[in-house]
Amino acid sequence: MLETFYLSLYIGIDIGTSGCRAIAIDSDGQVRHQAHTPLPTPHRSHTKIEQDPELWWHAVMETLTAVLQDVDTETVVSIAIDGTSGTTLLADSEGQPLTTALMYNDARATAEAAHIAQHAPRESAAHGTSSGLSKLLWLLKHEGLLKNTDGHAAKVHTQADWITGRLTGRFGISDINNALKLGFDPISGQWPGWLQALGIPKQLLPEIVEPGSAIGHLKPEVCAKLGLPESVMVIAGTTDSTAAFIATGASEVGEAVTSLGSTLVTKVIADQPVFAPEYGVYSQPLGEHWLVGGGSNSGGAVLRHYFSDAQMRQMTSQLNPDKLTGLDYYPLRSKGERFPTNDPELESRLTPRPATQVEFFQAMLEGIAAIEHQAYLRLAELGAPYPRSVYTVGGGANNEPWTHIRGQQLKVPMLKPPQTDAAYGTALLAKKYSLATHE
User: Fold this and answer.
1) Cα dihedral 349, 351, 355, 361 in deg (nearest 10)
2) 395 CB burial (10 A radius; 0-12, 13-18, 19+)
3) 246-283 pLDDT, tens per residue?
4) What CA–CA distance (Å, rounded) separates 77 from 148?
5) How would you list the strands of the sheet with 19-25, edge to edge?
6) What average pLDDT does this structure show over 211-239?
7) Based on the domain organization, do 192 and 334 belong to the same domain?
8) CATH number at residue 191
């Protein structure tokens, strides 16, 4: 029994902007196989950014085929999917797309976002043009399709739950995390009444389940194509950013993850939700806890404006984290900040300029580290715990001197997670469900 259980495999699929990745892990969480398929760049026209959802499906099937090549397919137990948060399309009850997919960063729905602002509570994640709800209103207004020619009622879908539907044949089901930007209320666990004031038909909205819940078995035709047993269960996934958080292994209250990518994003696990939309701070369920976070406009994009990747790699070895420059920088690419300071007029502060490029680079790193410290202090002020440890993900995670500088500011253990891939976090969700059913 134990040997068979150890040989079980759980697959996580991450559908990102540039490609689809799949990772198969065993019951010990070890990566056994992985594969990647690139996706075409979404079509862009001014503020419109869209993609044919069939491209996702082809990429998922190609990636699954690749990851299963050297696998005993009889050992695969479950599959879960994550996708980009806010990516939205309308499809009928059979899963046939009725519209193109508006991508997470599509910003055409300005009038719809303004309409939402008149009805949605300030703590809702449905505000702004990036929300799935604003995109849904735009699609309803401009496409006007609630039924296809065969009379199958339309449903709104996010990227992850449409793929889940294609795998199982069960459409109209979404997870809490993906549903937040559609207006779902995580506190009451229901679709709120104010959606009716926006003219959203109730039958358009999906049934909501917890991430890690069983959706259904793979469709027989999918099993036949992939050579998988019909016992394989498809599990409700989550958003890509939440999956990446799960991948780090952070799971206890007070454990935090800083993403040092183009922007600086700080998230911490709390035992209660925190909402402060004036700072862009929102919360989402994470098992029995809550994930509370906010994002600064500072980060890697500012560094890349002044230095190439090659220059930064060369200068990193010359940094002296034990001798700080003491310059009080606030690096921004353009005017304006929302978190940890809410000031749309805040100007970037990068003076006085030191004598060398290395000192200038280090001063900028110190400035971003100070913003990170202020971010966690702000989250604590709003009701979240101050971190007891911080995992780091993103491009800046590999800069050891910067990690030392940040640790001096935060004064908590700075941890390097063994995994940061969103597909790995989604595979953990698939494994978590399967382990629970065997307890």
Assistant:
1) -10
2) middle
3) 999 999 999 999 999 889 999 999 999 999 988 989 99
4) 35
5) 31-38, 19-25, 9-15, 76-83, 233-239, 214-217
6) 96
7) no
8) 3.30.420.40
